[in-house]
Amino acid sequence: MEPSSSNTGFIQQQPVINNQFYDDVSYQRVARLFLPSDILDKITPDAAQIGQEILSQQVFDWVTDAEHNQPYLRGNGRDSFGKPKSELVVGEGWRKLQGYGFKKGVVALNYDTDHGPYTRLVQFLRCHLWEASCANTLCPAAMQDGAARLLQRHLFSSAAKKLSPIEREVFQNAYSHLTSRDPTKTWTSGQWMTERTGGSDVSQTETVATYDPFPSSAPVPLASQSESIPLGPWSISGFKWFSSATDSHMTILLARTHPSKGVSAFFAPMRRHNPSLVSHTGESGNGTELNGITIQRLKHKFGTQSLPTAELELKGMRGWLIGEEGKGIQEISTILNITRVHTTVSSMGYLGRSLGIARSFALVRPVGMGKGKRIALSSHPLHMRTLANMTTDYHGMMLLTFYTIHALGLDERSLPSNQAATKVPTPPKELVQPLLRVLSSLHKSYVCKITVPLVYGCMEALGGVGYMQNVESEHLNISRLFRDCCVGAIWEGTTDVLASDTLRALKHPLSGKQSVQALDWLILSSKNAGLVEEWQVLKNKIDTGKQEELLPEARGLVFRIAEIIISVLYLVDAEADPGVEIEAMCARFMEKKGFSVCEAPGKRAREGGLKLDQAIVYGAGKDLAQGAKL
Question: DSSP string covering 183-243, please?
Answer without folding.
Answer: TTT---EEEE--BTTBSS--TT---EEEE-PPPTTSPPPEEETTTTEEPPSEEEEEEEEEE
